[in-house]
Specification:
single chain, Hypothetical protein af1432, about 190 residues
């Protein structure tokens, strides 16, 4: 985007109110316009090696969302399902936190909590095979979202590695992504720049 006005400074500390009143809407408009396409590019980063599974992480994500959609889940959870592992490519050690942070300003509290905690809840299915505690999720039994997260992992995560399942295409989820990510952000005072 070519702007008619450009700030005169190179350090943010030198900006004034007029500068930031000019910059902020431009940034927000640009960021919003590119958000869903950027998210789909990030999801595409999961295509490739199966890493020993029968399908790659991209197909796993589509399968998770397809199962949630076909089961009549609300749009927030379907979008959460398609993006629950989106951070695997760039935040493997804390992918649940990273994906949840992406979703937080746009989805309901339950979906945010589920995505934030799905990694530890998913461990129920395999931690014990690696010498870990499969019941590590039980430290969250007091959460009102405990059962919802356990159900998400049972119905839309641990069982979504089937190469014969008829996944919906990513393009079928784009309108849902658009709907959710075009909502007003729940974060007030968005920082205008880097």
């Amino acid at each position: 985007m070519n702007n008619a006005r450009t700030v005169s400074w190179t350090s943010m500390q030198d900006g004034d109110q007029a500068d930031y009143e000019m910059l902020t809407p431009q940034f927000e408009k640009h960021a919003r316009a590119a958000l869903v396409s950027n998210l789909t590019v990030m999801l595409g980063m999961l295509k490739g090696p199966t890493l020993g599974y029968q399908i790659d992480r991209y197909e796993h994500s589509l399968q998770s969302a397809t199962r949630a959609f076909r089961n009549g889940e609300r749009i927030d959870l379907v979008v959460g399902a398609v993006l629950h592992d989106v951070a695997d490519a760039f935040a493997p050690e804390n992918h649940s936190d990273a994906a949840a942070a992406l979703l937080a300003p746009y989805v309901d509290d339950e979906t945010h909590w589920i995505i934030k905690h799905h990694g530890i809840f998913q461990g129920y299915y395999y931690f014990h095979h690696l010498g870990g505690d499969r019941d590590a999720r039980d430290r969250y039994t007091d959460s009102p979202y405990y059962d919802a997260c356990a159900n998400f992992c049972a119905e839309y995560d641990q069982n979504c590695f089937d190469p014969n399942y008829d996944n919906m295409a990513l393009e079928e989820f784009v309108p849902m992504l658009d709907e959710v990510f075009n909502r007003p952000s729940t974060v007030s005072g968005i920082a205008p720049l880097l």
